[in-house]
Specification:
Chain lengths: ~240, ~290
């Protein structure tokens, strides 16, 4: 069983502390939601886990193996998949080739196996009909789907989702929620940053609230959303209504 | 008919220019590195072949078997241990590194091989050809160069389009940060791209050495031809590089037909005309990017 352990992560951008002693543990088949105001360090946290950023202190451990010194591409091959908040498809490649690159390099698959994984990822994200389109021609929402498809094609055991729900219509969001629930059910550990809190609480087992790089609450979603610290952090940036109840 | 002949010779010469420019185009396309030592490296390849012919009982073409892998290995090491370090330091750093490499190479070649002009002997092949009519003839060597150029470009195109590593290379050229999240080690892709670029420039360098004489200081003059072929055809397009090489070759031979002194000048004029009228290159749609 996959276990991701984050211990004492700390990172600064100049004088700004963007990750301040962040620790948690996430087991396979569990989903962790991450909330917090803009600039709280949510994306930074995912970057520290995926390897795009190195921490000044602290460790990231995957299945008992310390991966803190590993590069982003190695971590991907070890099973950490990540989507960008702002989609960055390989614009000159087709949608299918985008997924195929991920399945081949990240998933370590060859030929038929890679083709299957790539096409399964497109099926799962509803992109099959665009398989032979150049990715640069996709509209924004489909680009977001492609982010997820590519991350899935790498065959991750830990999936890091960065605001992939923003801008979706209610029925589209429903499909996304079901997809993520399915992935969690299939044994993936999921970390999902999302402002759409009602979508998040449907999926996640626990919620973590960040503010100025610090964990201010972590635990049962309803408890976290009900806590006074979280309410205070969100002052003026109203949490969605009816979620705590 | 002499004009037809000039065009035919230009096309054949263009094959060699295209082959020579491929490495420059590839390194720019994948890593955005402008390799100012490109010309000198091709001269290095020619001198390596020259030294091999001197030391071993080898035919000029047989030296390719040793020179091409040696240059590819040099490219891999250069990218991995020198150019890679310069990539994080802004756009100017790799340019300065390759400029420095160019100066170092010229001086090392001068020291080792003296400033004398050399040539790689290919016997009768250099002049043998097929006379098509009174004034139009096709040299076998030119046909061979064009054939090799097309074979290399088709091979490279298939490699990029059809193989997993080729796809990884295209993805890396698109976004070198995001490929890391797909599990691709971009440094490995870069080193391999440079190795391929050096292999193609080695072939071109040796063929150049068979066609005309070379000396340690001729590299920068050749670099201009590679630049012109790449820009005329359109940056980042392999077929464009072939077209650009042919256009440049034809311009030079047709210019020489007017007067031998106009050969190089005619190439430069066509290059300038393309820059003014079609800066994206003749084979690239205006809307691209």
């Amino acid at each position: 069983m996959t276990t991701l352990v984050v211990d004492g992560l700390r990172r600064r951008f100049g004088p700004l502390l963007v990750a301040d002693d962040i620790s948690f543990r996430l087991d396979a088949g569990r989903a962790l939601g991450v909330v917090g105001p803009n600039g709280a360090g949510k994306s930074t946290l995912l970057n520290l886990i995926s390897g795009a950023l190195r921490p000044e202190a602290g460790t990231v451990t995957l299945d008992g193996r310390d991966v803190t010194a590993r590069s982003a591409d190695e971590r991907c091959r070890l099973g950490i998949g990540r989507t960008h908040q702002v989609p960055r498809p390989f614009t000159d490649l087709t949608v299918f080739e985008n997924a195929l690159v991920a399945a081949g390099a990240g998933g370590g698959l060859r030929r038929t196996a890679a083709y299957r994984a790539a096409s399964a990822a497109l099926d799962r994200t509803g992109l099959r009909k665009y398989a032979n389109e150049r990715a640069g021609r996709l509209p924004l929402l489909d680009r977001k789907r492609l982010e997820l498809a590519r991350a899935l094609a790498t065959g991750p055991s830990v999936l890091l989702l960065d605001e992939i729900g923003g801008g979706l219509t209610e029925p589209e969001l429903r499909i996304l929620i079901d997809t993520v629930i399915g992935l969690r059910g299939a044994g993936l550990a999921v970390i999902w940053i999302e402002h759409i809190v009602h979508a998040l609480v449907e999926v996640v087992d626990e919620l973590l609230c960040l503010a100025t790089g610090r964990v201010i609450a972590h635990g049962e979603p309803s408890a976290v959303l009900g806590s006074r610290e979280v309410r205070e952090v969100y002052l003026g940036e109203e949490l969605e209504e009816g979620i705590a109840g | 008919m002499t004009w037809v002949n000039a065009v035919v010779q230009g096309i054949l010469l263009g094959g060699l220019y295209a082959l020579f420019a491929t490495g420059l185009s590839l390194m720019f396309g994948v890593m955005r590195i402008v390799n100012l030592a490109h010309g000198d490296l091709s001269v290095l390849a020619a001198f390596l072949a020259f030294a091999l012919i001197d030391a071993l009982p080898l035919n000029a073409f047989a030296t390719l078997v040793l020179v091409v892998p040696a240059m590819a290995a040099l490219g891999w090491l250069l990218q991995r241990f020198v150019l890679q370090r310069s990539l994080g330091a802004g756009q100017l750093a790799p340019l300065l590194v390759t400029f420095g490499l160019s100066v170092v190479l010229q001086n090392v070649l001068l020291e080792v091989f003296s400033p004398d002009s050399r040539a790689l002997d290919i016997g009768g092949l250099g002049t043998a050809g097929l006379r098509l009519s009174g004034s139009v003839s096709v040299g076998w060597f030119g046909v061979l160069c064009l054939g090799i150029a097309i074979a290399v470009l088709v091979g490279l195109q298939l490699f990029l389009a059809r193989t997993a590593f080729g796809r990884a290379m295209r993805a890396t050229s698109d976004d070198q940060e995001t490929v890391q999240l797909m599990g691709i080690d971009h440094r490995r892709v870069y080193a391999t791209a440079t190795a391929i670029a050096f292999a193609t420039l080695a072939v071109a360098g040796v063929l150049f050495g068979m066609r005309t004489t070379f000396d340690p200081s001729i590299g920068p003059a050749r670099l201009i031809f590679a630049f012109e072929a790449v820009i005329i055809g359109g940056l980042g397009s392999l077929w464009g590089t072939l077209a650009g090489g042919v256009v440049l070759g034809v311009a030079q031979t047709v210019g020489a037909q007017i007067s031998p002194a106009y050969s190089i000048l005619a190439g430069h004029l066509v290059f300038l005309a393309v820059l003014v009228l079609r800066p994206q290159g003749i084979l690239r749609p205006a809307a691209a990017r």
